[in-house]
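User: Earlier you gave me the apo prediction for this protein. Now I'd like the version with copper (II) ion bound, so I can compare the two side by side. Same sequence as before, with the ligand SMILES added.
Assistant: Got it. Here's the input I'm using:
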Amino acid sequence: MAGFFVFLLSLPVSANNSIHFTDTWARATFPMAETGAVYTTLMNHSQQPLTLVSVSVPEAVAASAEIHSITMSEGMMKMRELENGIELKPHGHAMLQPGGQHIMLVGLKEGLEPGTSFTLTLHFNDGSQQLLEVPVQDDSGDNDAMGKHHH
Ligand SMILES: [Cu+2]
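And here is the structure of the complex with copper (II) ion:
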């Protein structure tokens, strides 16, 4: 029986199973907040480049989700939407972290409460999609200066 399962797991997987996620979380917000940020690390375990092109969020959570980067311009931090998405090279990874790339939730319905979670749908350029469960957490304090900046 064990051998049978090993055989099944070694079959080729379709593209939407080749992206793995770690360190996924959303920063908790105050109840009336209108925007929120989601962080995760994506790893492409396939031989092909894959691009995360868009993200959708349940209507009960927020109006929309955008892929953002943060750049420094004349000493100011500027957020901008990555309209071409985030490309993952074969066996490459992308880290979405405080102070850098992130998924921005726009038009939050009732803020993000610590201890709750929600599910995002990530869409890739090969037409595949993958669900991502996102736990809401308070700033742990060890994230970086960016998190503390808001207090
Ligand atoms: Cu943003």
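For your comparison, keep in mind: The helical segments are 2-9, 145-149.
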